[in-house]
Amino acid sequence: MLFWHVGATTAFIRYAFRDPAMDLRFLALGAILPDLIDLPIGVVLWSTVEHVRLMSHSILFGAIVMIVVLLATRRGPTRKRWMLFAVGILIHLALDAMWQLPETLWWPLFGWEFATSGFASYGAYLADLVTNPLLWLGELTGLAYLAFLWRASDLGDPDARMRLRTTGTVSAPIGR
Fold first, then answer.
1. Is the pLDDT of residue 36 over 90?
2. Do 99 and 63 meet the contact criterion of CB atoms below 8 Å apart?
3. How many domains are contained in the chain?
4. Domain that holds residue 121
5. Helix (H), strand (E) counts: the chain
6. How far is it, in rounded angstroms, from Cα 110 to Cα 58?
7. Poorest-confidence range of 43-47, 85-89, 165-169?
8. Looking at the domain assignment, is residue 77 inside a domain?
């Protein structure tokens, strides 16, 4: 769910923090990192773990990243960028409704096992995802916000795209 995570996280954090100088590159990377880590592991180890939401989808992972950022950086722009990365990870958990999988969300507090999906194979799990209208609605919602941001920031202009690539900022005003 790439567009859901990047679009919804960006919309929520831009509105919550109202900081036009925030580096959206770090936020977007944090918003997809749990899937980048857990998806390949879950696919390869499906017969053992039966899910693609594993340790990176736990509060512990997000907390460790945040603590490392706090210990490794000093106040200023570097910490600000990396905190957006950590916040993106935590927002990812909320957007995945991880409270429905408490064994994974609170791992290893409830034991070393992760919640299972209930599907016998990754193919069956994937088929269920692809036919899930809520998944498509989330993807369309995220994509719609990203399209709005593209248009409002005039990212068709090479200079605006260069600004996004080099600073992570966009010119779109932040709503009230």
1. yes
2. no
3. 1
4. 2-167
5. 9, 0
6. 12
7. 43-47
8. yes
